[in-house]
Specification:
This protein is of the alpha+beta class. The chain is built from four helices and four strands, in the order βαβαααββ. Strands 1-2-3-4 form a four-stranded antiparallel sheet.
Length: 122
């Protein structure tokens, strides 16, 4: 049996952060949900049971958390920073998909949120 593709996903990470184009959003902050999916070669870890053969979830979370703590006007900018750091800092990463949802965006709509999704290839 052969593994054909492998991914690490951190799903629905919740943050209170200070992103937004409106000045008040940068002051009071808002609630955000982030999902990252990283295509990477972790087939060896499936055999060895060694964390050195995969991407450490905690380290991946650290990158997301650090970037979410840097205020930005646009979610696109935050997602861009997260995706670039993942591909730079994790040698096993081949592709990174970053989805950020702003809960309760200030646009007068009754919705669960506004989301951006960026996919990066090495």
């Amino acid at each position: 049996m052969k593994i054909v593709s492998t991914y690490i996903t951190l799903e629905n990470l919740r943050f209170h952060a200070h992103h937004g184009a409106l000045p008040q959003e940068r002051v009071t902050g808002g609630d955000f949900v982030v999902t990252v999916r990283v295509k990477c070669d972790i087939g060896r870890a499936a055999e060895t049971d060694n964390v050195a053969d995969t991407i450490n979830y905690a380290e991946l979370y650290r990158v997301v958390s650090e970037e979410m703590n840097v205020p930005s006007a646009l979610l696109e900018h935050v997602a861009g920073r997260i995706g670039r750091r993942i591909l730079t800092e994790f040698g096993r990463a081949e592709q990174a998909q970053v989805c950020i949802t702003k809960r309760n965006p200030p646009m007068g709509a009754d919705c669960d949120g506004a989301m951006v999704e960026l996919t990066f290839n090495k």
